[in-house]
Design a protein that fits this description.
The structure holds two protein chains of two kinds. By secondary structure, chain A is mainly α. Chain A has a single domain, classed as Four Helix Bundle (Hemerythrin (Met), subunit A), CATH 1.20.120. Chain A is 84% helix and 0% strand. Chain A has six helices and no strands. By secondary structure, chain B is of the alpha/beta class. In chain B, helix 2 packs parallel to helix 3 and helix 8 packs antiparallel against helix 9. The radius of gyration of chain B is 27 Å and the shape is elongated. Classes of the chains: A mainly alpha, B alpha/beta.
Chain lengths: 115, 350
């Protein structure tokens, strides 16, 4: 069984504690900020900066956990942990996979905030 | 000092991630706190030096200056070292969390931050800060700001260090008959006014009052903080004390109340300064021959009928103050006569 893109228990709890309207604004902020983090990761890979790649992945992991985007968080965590290895190989495949996870999470979050 | 009002505090969030900053700020505002935010450690330190905060919520992974570096800076900063910091991070290795605590962080909360835990940790940290602030306020009441600062910087340890400084002894002439001639309430009021005036004059010239006993006091110029012109500072303080007594006496005379006179002795040189007493009860003071000489000079003001007497070492470093040599004087406790000088001072009584 495929896990849900967004863990609704986490997302509902977030709405309960912070307020639905606020969470809508927070999702809007994520939709602006996350693509910048993905860009930063690609730049970091191009410039072979392990530290910048790791930090951007760490940041996106944190946001994924906040919204219950568990697959996005797991994928970002993988990049964070393997930053040195990925920079050494120069392979952008893990970044492509992360971007796909993010796209799925963004769509799901947009849906959830429209409900 | 502005104590945080119960349940409401000024908090600083330090996090490079905008979503995290907004969410944490929202949670804290819902808990009734007032919040500001910085996107890295460098910006946060600037804000902490420009505004008073009660607590910092600190992320560790940040560009420019990360959380570890900011904690290190705070530990080395007297103004910030006691400010509570709660680390909020999704760091996964225990070693990093331990390092945060070792660097002085009060607590650690993993992200995403649970609002209930957040409230509990913040309240506990603010309560600890309130108690620390109370202790500091208490310390300021019983110690001078310089001693309080020295204690804060170096911690408390009995023992001393050798310093070069000036010591002043001062007391009220004929205090016992004065105290016996009026109700005790009036004597206490007179003493309080006297001490307020003397403290102002002494601290205004960089000295600290280390001891008070009855109508007498002992002040140090040059410890715990070094004072380059300690001789000059001590004598200028003594002259201001005499002048303040003159003004005080004019008010006393106008109110039909008794007037007072003081005698001041000052000696300069090497001495040992530090905390003496026990670990439970101690005072900051100076000891040594110089201190004994200052005390003897103060006593000798009665014999010499002069308000301010100083020793040769103090005189040698004075500029622009009128003094009169009283020659070599036999001082009790000294095997050799001592060169004594009287500082020209205005009459104390009208």
């Amino acid at each position: 069984m495929t896990p849900p893109t967004i863990d609704t228990a986490t997302f509902d709890e977030l709405k309960t504690t912070a307020g639905a309207d606020f969470v809508r604004e927070l999702v809007d902020t994520l939709l602006v900020e996350a693509p910048l983090m993905l860009d930063e990761m690609r730049t970091a890979l191009g410039e072979r900066s392990v530290e910048r790649l790791r930090r951007a992945a760490h940041s996106l992991k944190s946001n994924g956990m906040t919204f219950g985007a568990l697959e996005l968080a797991a994928s970002a965590r993988d990049l964070e942990v393997r930053a040195a290895e990925i920079v050494a190989s120069g392979d952008a495949t893990p970044l492509d996979a992360l971007a796909q996870r993010y796209a799925a999470a963004a769509t799901a979050l947009a849906e959830l905030t429209r409900e | 000092m502005n104590e945080p009002a119960a349940g409401r505090a000024r908090l600083l969030i330090v996090d490079d991630n905008k979503v995290n900053r907004l969410l944490l700020a929202r949670n804290l505002e819902l808990q009734g706190h007032s919040v500001a935010a910085a996107e890295n450690g460098r910006v946060a330190l600037e804000m902490l030096h420009g505004e008073r905060f009660d607590l910092v919520l600190l992320d560790m992974e940040m560009p420019e200056m990360n959380g570890f570096e900011m904690l290190e800076r705070m530990v080395g900063d007297l103004q910030l070292r006691d400010l509570p910091v709660i680390v909020t991070s999704s760091l996964e290795d225990t070693g990093s969390v331990v390092r945060c605590i070792e660097l002085g962080a009060e607590d650690y909360l993993p992200k995403p931050v649970n609002p209930v835990l957040l409230r509990a940790r913040i309240n506990a940290s603010l309560e600890k800060k309130r108690l620390r602030d109370q202790q500091k306020a208490m310390m300021r009441r019983f110690a001078t700001p310089e001693v309080a600062q020295d204690l804060q910087r170096s911690g408390f340890a009995l023992g001393g260090k050798r310093v070069r400084a000036s010591v002043m002894f001062s007391d009220i002439r004929g205090f016992t008959p004065l105290a016996e001639s009026q109700p005790p309430e009036e004597t206490i009021e007179l003493l309080n006014t006297y001490y307020t005036l003397m403290f102002d004059a002494i601290s205004g010239h960089g000295g600290i009052v280390s001891q008070m006993a009855g109508d007498g006091l002992m002040a140090i110029f040059g410890a715990p903080l070094a004072l380059p012109d300690h001789c000059e500072a001590a004598v200028r303080a003594a002259l201001e004390m005499i002048d303040l007594i003159r003004l005080f006496n004019a008010e006393q005379a106008a109110a039909g109340k008794p007037q007072i006179r003081i005698g001041v002795g000052i000696a300069s040189g090497d001495m040992v300064a530090g905390y003496t007493g026990t670990n439970e009860r101690a005072t900051y003071t100076c000891i040594g021959d110089t201190v004994n000489l200052a005390s003897r000079l103060e006593a000798h003001t009665k014999v010499a009928a002069r308000a301010i007497l100083i020793d040769g070492a103090t005189h040698a470093d004075l500029r622009g103050v009128d003094v009169e040599s009283l020659g070599s004087v036999e001082i009790r406790g000294k095997s050799q006569p001592v060169d004594v000088f009287a500082v020209a001072a205005p009459a104390q009584q009208g």
